[in-house]
Design a protein that fits this description.
The protein contains one helix and ten strands. It is mainly beta. The strands form two sheets. Strands 1-2-3-4-5-6-7-10 form an eight-stranded antiparallel barrel. A two-stranded antiparallel ribbon has the order 8-9. Strand 5 and strand 6 form a beta hairpin.
Length: 203
């Protein structure tokens, strides 16, 4: 079901882009850096990178697709005393929607992303590593501002990611000592980057 939702969102982006070629149809390419952290105790702010393709259906609306790589790092303390060190990555592959509220040099915008969130985790417990990989459907509302500089746009945005159905991790240590730890289901992120092929300001 998650895979169907993801490919359906990609098909919708492609369909909208096809219709847009008869009118405005400007294509942009984005690159950005990310700072992000899950909403868990002991979470660290870690860096990431991302890239995307946007199709501007008009000067104020864009749809597209994006991929990000976000590092993860957090500790989780068990009630029985074991400390679980979690490191890994999160790779969201999403469809995107951006709605710009103005068309001048400074352009605040709201938007959303939704698609597949691929999580890879390496948990270290008492010197032993346990690896896990899982793909879930996720979504992120976002709020940002862009600065139009000719055909280039500089942007900064904040997003809050929801990962649905993300299960916690567990491992058996020794003879039946079951160890559990939390996996992130929510993640905040700040993205700063550049869009090449950004719509120019209205005269």
């Amino acid at each position: 079901m998650k895979t169907i939702r993801f490919y359906a969102s990609m098909a919708l982006v492609a369909l909208l882009a096809t219709f847009s070629t008869k009118s405005f149809a400007q294509v942009g390419f984005t690159l950005h850096g990310t700072a992000a952290a899950p909403n868990l105790d002991g979470a660290q702010v870690k860096p990431g990178v991302g890239a995307g393709l946007k199709v501007f259906l008009g000067p104020n609306v864009a749809v597209g697709a994006a991929a990000k790589y976000i590092a993860l790092s957090y500790d989780y303390n068990q009630s029985v005393g074991q400390n679980v060190e979690n490191k890994g990555s999160l790779v969201p592959i999403t469809g995107t929607l951006d709605i710009f509220l103005t068309s001048g040099v400074v352009r605040p915008y709201i938007g959303a992303e939704a698609g597949a969130y691929i999580r890879n985790t390496k948990a270290t417990i008492l010197g032993t590593e346990y690896k896990n990989s899982r793909t879930n459907f996720g979504a992120a509302p976002k709020l940002g501002v862009a600065f139009a500089l000719g055909g280039v746009g500089l942007f900064a945005e904040g997003a809050y990611n929801f990962i649905f159905g993300n299960k916690d991790g567990s491992a058996n240590i020794g003879s039946g000592n079951n160890i559990n730890w939390e996996n992130p289901s929510k993640l905040w992120a700040v993205n700063v980057g550049v869009t090449f092929g950004f719509p120019r300001t209205n005269p």
